[in-house]
Design a protein that fits this description.
284 residues, alpha/beta, nine-stranded parallel sheet, two-stranded antiparallel sheet, 11 strands, globular
């Protein structure tokens, strides 16, 4: 059984100088494809669910799928709730057994964000779960969460104070990254990652990973981005695989054949990212 916790997985990644794929799954097929990819390459993996996905599938159903996949896996598999602004949904997921949650406070004042996150950390600890914090909005909309407007960046001292006072386990900084597709490679504020890691010793979560170059991934991971979020790339692979298969096989009416093709495509994307992040072969 390898139902894993976030903190030990990120601690090992930080010590080993690699990044852990944190990928947003959308259903049982993508969940199994991602876990199979991690097993094939002997890598830890963080399976993420958006609030939209959780509410669509149901909390008990999502947890059941995850436990079935994780308990038969031979690599660490973390279940993480991504970008949750609703304390009620967050608490329901913690009660159901999510191992970690991102409490997104980017729409709140710093004072309110600090107080609310402290409460979430206390709640999470009572369930043995870990917490990722966010106070600066990552540009772009993902699963109905976020905004295309640039968020105000807090001074470094404020961000460090938030991290220390709340007791979070991982922090998601805004460094010029964005959810969705990039029209061109972004100019990222890598120095901000250095400063936050130096001041707090905390692992950083890189959001908006889809579309960054391999060199950008490796550079940011070397600076302390131990958790690397991917969502758009997996969704695109999932949808495009359906289109490609049906275009090439217009007369096929066997769903299992289609599903096997789609699963293979999703697994290939996950394996490629695992290799870039340096986490291949990190699990004995």
């Amino acid at each position: 059984m390898t139902v894993a916790k976030l903190v030990p997985v990120l601690e090992a990644a930080t010590a080993g100088g690699y990044g852990v794929l944190a990928v947003n799954i959308v259903n049982g097929l993508t969940l199994r494809a991602v876990v199979d990819a991690a097993e094939e390459l002997r890598a830890p993996v963080i399976v993420q669910t958006s609030v939209k996905t959780v509410l669509s599938q149901g909390i008990p159903e999502t947890m059941s799928m995850y436990r079935h996949a994780a308990e038969r896996a031979t690599v660490p598999v973390v279940l993480h709730l991504d970008h949750c602004t609703d304390r009620n949904v967050l608490l329901d997921c913690l009660k159901a057994g999510w191992g970690s949650v991102l409490f997104d406070c980017s729409g709140r004042t710093l004072e309110e964000a600090t107080e609310q996150t402290k409460q979430v950390v206390r709640e999470a600890r009572s369930f043995g779960a870990d917490v990722e914090g966010e106070i600066e909005g990552i540009t772009g909309v993902e699963d109905g969460v976020g905004s295309d407007d640039k968020s105000e960046l807090y001074p470094l001292d404020d961000a460090v104070r938030f991290i220390r006072e709340t007791g979070i386990d991982c922090f998601a900084p805004a460094i010029g990254n964005a959810h969705g597709d990039y029209p061109q490679l972004p100019n990222l504020d890598v120095d901000r990652v250095d400063s936050l890691v130096d001041a707090t010793g905390l692992p950083m979560a890189l959001h908006g990973g889809s579309g960054l170059s391999d060199d950008q991934f490796r550079d940011l991971i070397s600076r302390g981005c131990a958790k690397v979020n991917i969502s758009t790339a997996l969704k695109q692979a999932y949808i495009d695989a359906h289109r490609d298969f049906l275009a090439e096989n217009p007369d096929c009416h066997e769903p299992l054949t289609l599903m096997a093709f789609v699963s293979s495509r999703v697994s290939m994307v996950a394996q490629g990212l695992i290799k870039v992040f340096g986490s291949e072969g990190r699990v004995a």
